[in-house]
Amino acid sequence: MATDMTTMTKDTILRVEHLSMRFGGLMAIDDFSFEAKRGEITALIGPNGAGKTTVFNCITGFYKPTMGMLTLHRSNGREFLLERLRDFEINKVAGVARTFQNIRLFSGLTVLENLLVAQHNVLMKASGYTILGLLGLPTYKNAAKAAIEKAEYWLDKADLTDRADDPAGDLSYGAQRRLEIARAMCTGPELLCLDEPAAGLNPKESLTLNALLRGIRDEGTSLLLIEHDMSVVMEISDHVVVLEYGQKISDGTPDHVKNDPRVIAAYLGVEDDEVEEIEEKLDKGIIEEGSV
Amino acid sequence: MATVSETVPNNVMAKAIKEGIFAGVIAFLMFSLFVGIETYQDINNQLVWRTRWGLLAVFVAVAAVGRFMTVAFIKPHLDRRKLAKAKAGILEISEEKSFFHRHFLKFALVFLLIYPFLSLLIVGKQGSLKYVDNFGIQILIYVMLAWGLNIVVGLAGLLDLGYVAFYAVGAYSYALLSSYFGFSFWLLLPMSGILAALWGVILGFPVLRLRGDYLAIVTLAFGEIIRLVLINWTDVTKGTFGISGIAKASFFGIWSFDTGSPNNFVKAWGLSASSVYYKIFLFYIILALCMLTAYVTIRLRRMPIGRAWEALREDEIACRSLGINTVTTKLTAFATGAMFGGFAGSFFATRQGFVSPESFVFLESAVILAIVVLGGMGSLTGIAIAAVIMVGGTEILREMSFLKIIFGPDFTPELYRMLLFGLAMIIVMLFKPRGFVGSREPTAFLKERKAISGSFTKEGHG
């Protein structure tokens, strides 16, 4: 059983193959492939304009990719091709939830209501698509109670219990970020995609966020995150993929990526001829990727 | 300290005089042609003009003195009161609500239940006809329509300018099916609702991918299409002549309100002949329909579908990322709103006994939407109050014959209805930009139910 579990946790949850996305004449993503493992935190990093958010939007159904295949493997063995699902089905059927770079909360609803909206599909079924619920049947009442309990669980995790009855728009920035993550988790996803969760957070808030994300991973949800803040990425991720100008330039453990000359070049910036020099060396096999 | 309190009023006085004069000048410029000069046709049918300097002077004086008083006395007074309140630490939310305020809804419901008998008691059979029919039923029809539209506009945030189309579908469904096939009101009432909901879905499918202004324009066009079909499809709808002699509603099939019928309600109960009994009966039907609308809306808000509607109003993209099918969610909002419009329509047909396309013009849609906006989008209480003011207000203007004493014998207050209406709306929107009830009641809570300020809720964009 134990060995089963380890093989289970190490299999692939998301496989992206030959993903390309073209906007008119611009090739935003060019033949990009990577895998995210189940039970891991996979980080997608890269300089501004590298195409990280575009990859995210392809995975979560907001863009239809020009080319490529996005396969999601659920733990029950079912597979879904994300590029063929309709936008809302990616969450409902495939179990992929996401947050947004510019927070998108339901600001006029309370914090609790935000978390209840996230459980829409479960509650909808329990209420017999509204008809049975309108008649006041106990199935719906029980489901509604369970939904509130689930919301309370995530409120506690996100440290928002005291603010449960306040409008979401009234929360501080950091709290709004945590609420958005909690809301995404209330949909019961297998893969949680976070678009720059640490943007705009102070160091203390960043630490609590790290703890929250680790907690989510340890409960069995895989994470895929875009992040600029290297301290967050190196701290929590198990696997890092680096993107530059729509192409993958590095893929591996945080330590591997940290020492990759191409990544250093992309982040710190070097002279053009120096990049060519390094690439030449790489091609000739004089230095190995990630060995520097 | 003493110098400050002395100098401030001086400043205020100077400012007040300046602003008063300024307001007077503006008023003079604006009204000099509108009010100062009047055109009329003389005996030779020629258009000639005369001046009305006296009236113009009254207008200018009212503007100037009004502005002066506002700046010099009213505003400082309000500021002082606000300051005193802030000093004493009284927040608006912490103020204890009065007994009447807290039990307002119960009072309102009891009043509505006894209203027909109250008017019978006070003004007698013939007099109460006006109060039950023109005020009671008329207002309640609009309350129901506005509550129906509230589901679409207030909850789901979809701007619908053609809501009257569903009202028309309901009215014509009843009128046609009852005159061609002789079905009864109680069978056709749900049927009209279902037909209207069906039309809501038919309209919804193609247009719900549109958002904001585009959606508003298409719904506006849809309202006009329905009306034009009713006018031009003369074989079935008799065009502009309309359909008359629509069957009255029966007392649940037990008694009839037709005078010739053997089981006539009035005869069966041994009452003296009067149409007021039928009107009272209709009053209770529409009251029950309104209560049904309110009950369903309140229940739906606490259901996943109602929360999804409100979430849709707040942020559609976030909804999709949470696995909510926005197309079906919008369609259900459209269909539910249309259904209540259909109910109201079939009730309208049986009450009037006559329907024609005249009753379903764009102005009706605009009035219903204005009621929703004025009342506060999403708030049932606010909308009901707005309907009483908007519809009751226009009815009352017909009664204001005493205004003739002030403005002269050829003053007809009815003609100024729309002007006063617009003025009232501007004033309300200035002081209560979110409508009478701008706050939102949460649908679920952990510890305490706090009203959510209107500044957090969004109006929707699609």
TrEMBL record, chain A:
<dbReference type="Pfam" id="PF12399">
    <property type="entry name" value="BCA_ABC_TP_C"/>
</dbReference>
<feature type="domain" description="ABC transporter">
    <location>
        <begin position="14"/>
        <end position="270"/>
    </location>
</feature>
<dbReference type="GO" id="GO:0005524">
    <property type="term" value="F:ATP binding"/>
</dbReference>
<dbReference type="InterPro" id="IPR003439">
    <property type="entry name" value="ABC_transporter-like_ATP-bd"/>
</dbReference>
<dbReference type="GO" id="GO:0015188">
    <property type="term" value="F:L-isoleucine transmembrane transporter activity"/>
</dbReference>
<dbReference type="InterPro" id="IPR027417">
    <property type="entry name" value="P-loop_NTPase"/>
</dbReference>
<protein>
    <submittedName>
        <fullName>Branched-chain amino acid transport system ATP-binding protein</fullName>
    </submittedName>
</protein>
<keyword id="KW-0813">Transport</keyword>
<dbReference type="InterPro" id="IPR032823">
    <property type="entry name" value="BCA_ABC_TP_C"/>
</dbReference>
<dbReference type="GO" id="GO:1903805">
    <property type="term" value="P:L-valine import across plasma membrane"/>
</dbReference>
<dbReference type="Pfam" id="PF00005">
    <property type="entry name" value="ABC_tran"/>
</dbReference>
<dbReference type="GO" id="GO:0015192">
    <property type="term" value="F:L-phenylalanine transmembrane transporter activity"/>
</dbReference>
<dbReference type="GO" id="GO:0015808">
    <property type="term" value="P:L-alanine transport"/>
</dbReference>
<keyword id="KW-0029">Amino-acid transport</keyword>
<dbReference type="GO" id="GO:0042941">
    <property type="term" value="P:D-alanine transmembrane transport"/>
</dbReference>
<dbReference type="InterPro" id="IPR051120">
    <property type="entry name" value="ABC_AA/LPS_Transport"/>
</dbReference>
<dbReference type="GO" id="GO:0005886">
    <property type="term" value="C:plasma membrane"/>
</dbReference>
<keyword id="KW-0547">Nucleotide-binding</keyword>
<dbReference type="InterPro" id="IPR003593">
    <property type="entry name" value="AAA+_ATPase"/>
</dbReference>
<dbReference type="GO" id="GO:1903806">
    <property type="term" value="P:L-isoleucine import across plasma membrane"/>
</dbReference>
<dbReference type="GO" id="GO:0016887">
    <property type="term" value="F:ATP hydrolysis activity"/>
</dbReference>
<keyword id="KW-0067">ATP-binding</keyword>
<dbReference type="GO" id="GO:0005304">
    <property type="term" value="F:L-valine transmembrane transporter activity"/>
</dbReference>
<comment type="similarity">
    <text>Belongs to the ABC transporter superfamily.</text>
</comment>
